[in-house]
Design a protein that fits this description.
Layout (H helix, E strand, L loop, with lengths): L21 E3 L2 E8 L24 E5 L2 H14 L7 E2 L1 H5 L1 E8 L4 E4 L3 H7 L10 H12 L7 E5 L7 E6 L8 E6 L7 H9 L3 E2 L1
Parallel strand pairs: 4-10, 6-7
Antiparallel strand pairs: 1-6, 2-5, 3-8, 5-9, 7-8
Amino acid sequence: MSRGDPKPPPANLNTRSLDAQMRGLRGLFWRLSLRGSANVDWSDRAEGRFSHPALPCKVLYFASLKSTAFWERFGDDLLDQDGSTRAISEPLLAARVWKTVLVGPGLRVLNLTDAAALRTIGADGATFSAHYECTQRWAAGLMAHPAAIDGVIYASRLNPPKKCVALFERPHSAASLKVQVRAPAPIDDPVILALLAKERIRLM
């Protein structure tokens, strides 16, 4: 493996102690969801960084900021467009609602933006921004780790250095969450409309 290649999980990941690196997760976070989706809409979509139908846990993704949640959902499509003519479909945006995810005490996560945590598991700073085949292999290893971590904090790839959370569906996870649909919807949200204006992204 060359230095430029993403690092796979080490063979001895399961024997590495994560106790010193575990962090409690609490606070209010934001998520973009499809209208009509389940209140807590866990995902096993293969298009997610830490989710796949073959993995042992489904995942709930959310972000600390509305703007980060927006870029995580729509950023790839927008960055593929020419910077002077970027546009987002109004029906595509209108099909989404905001959800707040209030996380109570009791959940323990691994902070993948922390250098000491990365060294503990044998990863480096580029590991979790690698292609999804790599990050999903890491997700499988972390989900199966004896520490039974509840999820990971990771750096947004599309709105760095802001942070996101991938929460693993464990038997107790949903009990620690309070998820609510919030108004205004993204299509009418002043925060998102200001973001579109600043980035010169038009609605079409």
